[in-house]
Specification:
It comes from Arthrobotrys musiformis. Belongs to the CCM1 family. The protein is mainly α and 503 residues long. It has helices at 3-10, 38-44, 105-115, 121-129, 141-151, 159-174, 181-194, 200-216, 223-234, 241-251, 258-270, 274-286, 293-305, 309-321, 333-353, 371-385, 388-400, 407-420, 430-442, 449-463, 465-481, 486-496.
């Protein structure tokens, strides 16, 4: 942990309080849905996550602490209690390996669903719910972990997927099945990434899972856990909480990795702290880590959030003009090496113009902008500047770089039409909206909730509620054809009924 980061942490008051003293009151915080009805929880059997938050971490010192199970391993007191028939872990998943009533057709359906490569996570979960209770007695420990792994492959922001994953975790706790750190981290990550804007309750749910992981299961957090918690805290309304998490990492002597630095850069951007962005980047360089496009995307995002969009645009312009965006060929190794050297020198100059240290020792991967690089600025101009011409230029550069567009780009365009389409003499016209909508429906894009909501808002703003309903019928048919979630379709339908022309 580096001095400037620690000094900023101490600046919040030089207090020695634990993170958890923020939540010193005795409460329980079950993970609950914002939109799904209470009947959903009853149907899936999602039990309340009992317990209270930590009051302090003073008994837990970096690594071993007072836990059973050593450094992050499952405590030996947590034993597998699925019946003697499953003591030997089966490596093949088939109906012959089951214990219990073999003539129950629900078991055959579950294993066919489990073994099918075409099965979606929500389909697998539905077949899992149909198993006779207690459900986990039909699975070996290895198969339970496989079930969780299959259910974790889902789109970001899928609340239903989060609840389904936590249902299986809840069953594992009830059945005393050891939960490895990886699956605890995944559960916390679901809470951290499920919502774009976290409420205090969402934050408490994620922190409670951390408490349960360490306090109840005896599984110590690692750097991945803290990176997820830092991301969770950064998206909350508690500006000091991320720095308190860094302080806890220091107390446990857990060093920061490249993801920690990227998260910290994003955090300082949200705080409007350009100096913090530059200091963190300098510390990142000094660790010897490679600077790749992920790091530069984080810097550009942070600079925009910090109110320095021109500095971010300069970095993108350099990346677009960089000769390293072409593929390296063995026969041109020397020529490309000279180009890369020139590229490093130019990038160092660009960064120096924006206040970064020009003498820093850059270790660069071959740099070229990716889809995220362009999506950052397309979304920024759609939200803030309404500069349609600049967006067209970015889309042209995206095409010239050989990068295929994704639904996130169209979502940003729909957002621009919704926000600026009602202005006089606006370039965000209904004709252009129709062109974007045609691509959305016929371009092979994967329809999701957020893109659909912005699409409908744009049509309601530019053409009225009736047109919005007509568009919804088209999108809904396509979405259902793609296997869209029923709960998300219902949510969009409900929100459409409340949309107004004056957005």
């Amino acid at each position: 942990m580096h001095s400037h980061i620690l000094s900023r942490t101490e600046a919040i008051g030089r207090r020695t309080y634990s993170i958890w003293k923020v939540y010193s009151a005795f409460r329980t915080f079950p993970v609950r849905s914002r939109f799904l009805p209470a009947s959903y929880f009853q149907s899936v059997g999602l039990g309340a996550l009992d317990g209270t938050f930590y009051r302090s971490f003073t008994d837990f010192r970096g690594g071993g602490g007072g836990y059973e199970g050593g450094k992050g391993q499952v405590a030996p007191v947590v034993s597998l209690a699925l019946g003697p028939g499953l003591a030997k872990v089966s490596k093949e998943t088939n109906e012959d390996g089951l214990t219990g009533p073999q003539n129950d057709g629900r078991l055959a359906v579950f294993w066919r669903t489990f073994n099918s490569k075409a099965t979606k996570p929500n389909q697998l979960f539905e077949s899992y719910l149909q198993l006779p209770a207690p459900r986990l007695r039909y699975l070996s420990q290895e198969q339970v972990y496989g079930l969780l792994s299959k259910m974790s492959v889902t789109q970001k922001g899928d609340e239903s997927a989060m609840l389904q994953y936590l249902t299986v975790i809840d069953d594992m706790k009830t059945g005393r099945v050891p939960i490895p750190r990886y699956h605890w981290n995944t559960a916390i990550s679901f809470v951290a990434k499920c919502y774009r804007h976290l409420t205090d309750h969402d934050l408490q749910s994620g922190l409670f899972l951390w408490k349960e992981m360490e306090k109840s299961a005896g599984v110590l957090a690692d750097i991945t856990t803290f990176n997820i918690l830092f991301h969770l805290a950064t998206n909350s309304n508690m500006a000091h909480l991320p720095l308190m998490i860094l302080k806890e990492m220091k107390r446990r002597t857990i060093p920061m990795d490249r993801f920690s630095y990227v998260n910290l850069i994003i955090y300082y951007g949200k705080q409007g702290d350009g100096r913090g962005i530059r200091h963190t980047y300098r510390e990142f360089i000094q660790t010897g880590e490679v600077v790749d496009i992920v790091v530069l995307n984080a810097i550009m995002t942070a600079l925009i959030d910090a109110g320095e969009p021109q500095a971010a645009e300069d970095v993108l312009t350099h990346l677009i003009q960089s000769p390293t965006k072409s593929r390296f060929k063995r026969s041109m190794e020397k020529k490309n090496s000279r180009r890369l050297h020139k590229n490093v020198r130019n990038l160092r100059w660009i960064l120096a113009q924006q206040g970064f240290d020009p003498n820093m020792d850059l270790r660069l991967a071959p740099l070229a902008p990716d889809l995220v690089s362009f999506a950052i600025f397309i979304d920024y101009h759609a939200r803030e500047t309404a500069d349609f011409g600049r967006i067209l230029s970015l889309l042209n550069d995206l095409s010239e770089c050989g990068i295929n567009s994704e639904v996130s780009v169209l979502q940003s365009l729909f957002k621009g039409f919704a926000l600026h389409g009602s202005s006089r003499y606006t370039p965000w016209t209904f004709q252009r909206l129709n062109a974007v909508f045609d691509a959305f429906i016929n371009g092979g894009y994967c329809i999701n909730r957020d893109a659909t909501l912005w699409c409908l808002r744009a049509h309601v703003v530019l053409a009225g509620k009736k047109k919005g309903k007509e568009v919804w019928e088209i999108v809904k048919a396509k979405w259902i054809e793609q296997g869209g979630s029923g709960s998300e379709v219902s949510e969009v339908e409900h929100r459409l009924s409340r949309m107004k022309k004056d957005f």
